[in-house]
Amino acid sequence: MDRIARAALGAGRDPAAVTLVAVSKTHGQAAVLAALAAGQHVFGENRVQEAAEKFPLQGTQLHIIGGLQTNKAAQAVLLADAIDSLDRASLADAIATAAQKAGRLPQLLVQVNIGDEAQKSGVALAEADSFIRAMRARFGANLAGLMCIPPESADPSPYFQRLAAMADEHGLAVRSMGMSGDFEAAIAAGATHVRAGSAIFGARMVAK
Ligand SMILES: *Cc1c(COP(=O)(O)O)cnc(C)c1O
């Protein structure tokens, strides 16, 4: 998408270093197929059940981006190429068990509750460093990076910068940050993946 390339070039970054995760939640498989035909290969879904209605789909990579219930971990491990919302030890246990059984382990991102908001999922800031270290020890190179959703009302840039710094400290390459409304700021702060839904598929009929 043009906005991503412009934002990357404006920030002095290579547009190819930013992957667009097209968030297809609430849109049917027809919309996914249309995007695929237009050259979009990486998709994001926030509910495993809904994702299973559209994926797996040849030629696509699927990211599970939403808060993941432990009892959905096995299905997510079978279906997804990446789980971007690893945020607690019980979920890590469920993913590890499922991966052992399935013989496949998706790429994993630790979701950090970067604004320390009570209602948000993600590991709390105070526990982030030790949790990231533990996940690195447990999953090795499959722990690829970090993900965050900054507080809605604030300027997102300091939050994006904080996540990027945390990824740097831990030597993690992937930074999934920025959505339709704020991905330019995320790209300026070093996002490698931006998750855009409404900017690609149009407004969602149902809030999710
Ligand atoms: C829905 C969703 C997005 C995409 O939101 P838009 O504002 O439509 O771009 C990104 N990340 C997560 C975790 C989401 O749930």
The average pLDDT is 96
Percent in helix: 25-40%
How many DSSP E strands? 8
Instruction: Please write the string of helix (H) and strand (E) elements.
Output: HEHEHEHEHEHEHEHEH
Shape call: globular
- Which small compounds were modeled alongside the protein? pyridoxal-5'-phosphate
In terms of DSSP E residues, the strand content is 15-25%
- What is the name of the CATH superfamily? Alanine racemase
The whole-angstrom Rg is: 16 Å
CATH topology description: TIM Barrel
Distance between the termini: 23 Å
Looking across the biggest beta sheet, what order are the strands in? 7-6-5-4-3-2-1-8
How many separate helices? 9
Summarize the structure.
This protein is an alpha/beta fold. It has helices at 2-10, 29-37, 48-52, 73-79, 89-102, 125-139, 157-169, 183-188, 198-201; strands at 19-23, 42-45, 61-64, 82-86, 107-112, 143-148, 174-176, 193-196.
